Amino acid sequence: MKKLISIIILPLFCFVTLTAKDRSKTIPALYQSADKAKMNQWVDSVFDRLTMDERIGQLFVVVADGSSSTSNTAKIEGQVRDLNLGGVLFSKGTPTDQAELTNAVQRVAKVPLMISLDGEWGLSMRLQNTTQFPRNMMLGAIQNDSLLYYYGMEVARQCRLMGIQVNFAPDMDVNSNPNNPVIGNRSFGEDPERVAQQGIMYSKGLEAGGVMAVSKHFPGHGDTSKDSHYTLPLIPHSRERLDEVEILPFDRYIKAGLSGIMTAHLNIPALDKKTQPSSLSENVVTDLLQNELGFTGLIFTDGLQMKGVSGEDNHCVRALLAGNDILLGPMYPAKEYEAVKKAVADKTLSEELINEKCKKVLAYKYILGVNNVKPVETKDLEKQLNTPYADWLNRELNKSAITLLKDDVSIVPLKKLDERKIAAIAVGATSDRTFQNTLKKYADVTLFTVADNEGLLKLKKDLESYNTIIVSVHNNKGNADAAIGNISEGKNLILTFFVVPYRMTSYSQSVKSADAVVLAYENTTLAQEFAAQAIFGGNVVNGKIPVSVKGLFKVGNGVDTKKVRLSYNLPEAVGIQSNKLDSIEFIVNEGIKGQAFPGCQVLIAKDGVVIYDRSFGSFQYDGKRSVTNDDIYDIASMTKASATIPAIMKLYDEKKITLNDPLSNSVPALKGTDKSDITVRQALFHETGLTSFIPYYMDAIDKTSYAGKLFDRSEGSPFLAEFDANTWARTDYKYKSNLVSSKPQDGFLPLADGLYVNRAYKDTILSSIASSTLRKRKSYLYSCLNFMLLKEVIEKEAKEDLNAFVQDNFFRGLGATTTTYNPLTKFDKSQIVPTEQDDFLRKQLLQGYVHDEGAAFMGGISGNAGLFSNANDLAKLYQMWLNKGVYGDERYLSEKTCNLFTSTQSPTSRRGLGFDRPEPRTSKSSPTSISTPMNTYGHTGFTGTCFWIDPDNKLIYIFLSNRVYPKRTHKGITGLAIRSRIQEEIYKAIKTSNGATTIN
């Protein structure tokens, strides 16, 4: 999307007046912008061809079923021909059906039809499979009015694609009556000035997009207790009150130069002493709307099939006499058409009046392009309607409306996740669990769903161990107020409402006792998603409630919060077009098809926003178990940079180690050896002289259990286990019983299913490292041994094992729930992606046990490998580094330490302090793509993983796979350059999007 959106300063009251003779009148901007000569020429040419009967027909808009069936199409075509209709308003249907129907009726119309939409929240109010924008009351919470303008423009774009020229929106009623049965969440709120401002901004967007806005329901339907669909509501207020509240938004709208208004069916004694619908009142439609307020645009009646007017005698004739221009939706169009013809014939209606109104309708048809109407293109129509931009804008609207009504103890955004045990309980939730699922992206949250008060009370015992409760209310059924207080006693309580604001009165006791109250207004997927993000600080919260809630909240209440964690959104949120990233799926599928890996996770975060988080393929090539974003991967050597490095950084921050400290200070096995002076810095740079690998397992194998050699270059009994591309290992050996056991016993740690290694074997590995041959030069050579030794340094200084240390100091606080060593202690095997079919050492498919042999024989916890995670949880750690040591509004590392470790590079190689970096020398192969900036840091992993953090672009890229399934000999991931090709596509997307899709 090559689109740069920024604040547009839109003067709310920019309008053009008529001549000095009639300065009180306002010419709508659409009319003013028309080429008058061409308009008048077209209007006159059409008008002159029409008979009086046909001119009458131009004043009728019928409501038609949206089905494109043969019988329905024939019915509407007949009405268009017989009545010479001016327009059609289609009721519910699908985009394709309505498009086909529109094309059919336009073909038979003598004068092109004005197609209208009753779409207060866009096409989705009437058409399936279209963008479901929020209703006005939710929009009323938004403080950035520019969003309303762009919303109007997008609705207009969609309307034009559908061949629609008029939208009966916005609803500009001031909903000052909580018991209003018909307006409610259709209104922007109860503050007349805010209703006016937001309605005008939306309307300006519509008309900038070439669609007429029709504000309704003049002079104001917001303070009624009756529904005009079923009766004639009474508005008992004085004229002064009407001017201050009900009429004010319409007055502002008119002065802003907007084009359409719909008149309501209301009984308003202060405006007309005669008991009749205001839509039929000359006092209201002509004297007030046109003469006093100066409106000169197109005036539509509200639906004439409504019982608030349909029982009135001769209501269509009276509506025209009152001053309306267009008769909308009479129950019996042919009958009312004949009634108007008769009224003209008997002079009740003058021909001059009909001619004037017909020309006015034709003029607006010209202005709206109806004169050049083209068939609606049905090919890919739904795709054209539901663009990524529409989706993004919808998300922005939902995000910006979320309102934090109460935050007594500053609990939102949630902090100190390591001290919280969180339960989320959905009351009355449907099958849509987006709210709870999004909460789980941020922290370890236990989920419950109940139907009512009784269901909540049954959870009390289950909730005893939790200290933080998030209760979400998803519908108006039942009342769980008392139970919420009961189950949350002594705990932090956050209430989240997915209902209209007024319904919170049913939960007044819980609202008053809650630590925080979040209002999301609607129980939609997006409202649920952004409410959850708000609770954890994924986005800024600044919504303000647009109505009062008796005894609880006043209009305008709302607490502002800042963004402190990753958010989840579309690429458009950071100025990247979604389709620019489509190539990632192609590359991934190429890898899966080529059996480079059976499945993977790909995550991209930019500017603190996760813009791409997808899983592909399966656990194994059989396709039986698809990979999800929640699944956990063995990240292999990414462990070095995701566990060992943050631990070293923490100890460095606390001045417990320096980079020049010898490793032997913490690793006694190195003392007195040629490795005693190896420093922390040298180990981080891989410049220690240590060999790249030693066979960690050899000392555990009983050499007396087999005769001959352990490996051979060719397959054949007993060499049946493929070790690498050129080596086969024998399988008939046995382990030393004191070191490896097939049964659990004290002092032994899991090595695999049914296999346990002596805890003391770690010392054997360290002794092997200490006695290994040291290279003469301490030049760069990548070696896992360096990080196995660094792990010992960490544990010596931290006085706890590496897993415990990184959990205590990073992962629990970050909410990185799945990031852990030995994942089977926390998660079911079914959630962990398998790695290799290990026929040599462990003789089984490895699933939940670390793939790396060294880490495995260290008990699963090592500095070089052993960490498991999903991509989402790793992103939190990496974002903390991008934030210079801060995440969730909590500091984990000093900015100085972050800068040192993430920017320092070895003077002799591409390596950083523990991190890998792009290769600056063109003669060497780089682990990154060609466009990756030199400031980028990260790491790859043997199992087919990588992460890269680019501070220049505030970018995180994570790729997790199990390329070693079923064997490590699968090297297609390297041959196809999957990881770097995906990375390059990210940079291409950034470069070619050329702009930001942001609204400030």
At a glance:
The protein has 1000 residues and is of the alpha/beta class.
Plain-language structure description:
The protein is α/β, with parallel strands linked by helices and 1000 residues long. Helices cover 33% and strands 15% of the residues. It contains 32 helices and 37 strands. The strands form 10 sheets. An 8-stranded parallel β-sheet has the order 9-8-7-6-5-4-3-10. A 6-stranded mixed β-sheet has the order 11-16-15-14-12-13. α4 (70-83) runs parallel beside α5 and α7 (146-161) packs antiparallel against α16 (388-401). The radius of gyration is 35 Å and the shape is elongated. Mean pLDDT is 95; it is low at 1-23.
What about the largest sheet? 8 strands, parallel
Residues in helices, as a percent range: 25-40%
**Average pLDDT across residues?**
95
Number of DSSP-assigned strands: 37
Q: What is the distance, rounded to the nearest whole angstrom, between the alpha carbons of the first and last residues? A: 18 Å
Q: What class, by secondary structure content?
A: alpha/beta
Q: Please work out how many helical segments DSSP would assign.
A: 32
Q: Rg from C-alpha positions?
A: 35 Å
Estimate what percentage of residues fall within beta strands: 5-15%
Shape: elongated
**Oligomeric composition of the shown chains:** single chain
Keywords, separated by commas or semicolons:
1000 residues; alpha/beta; 37 strands; 15% strand
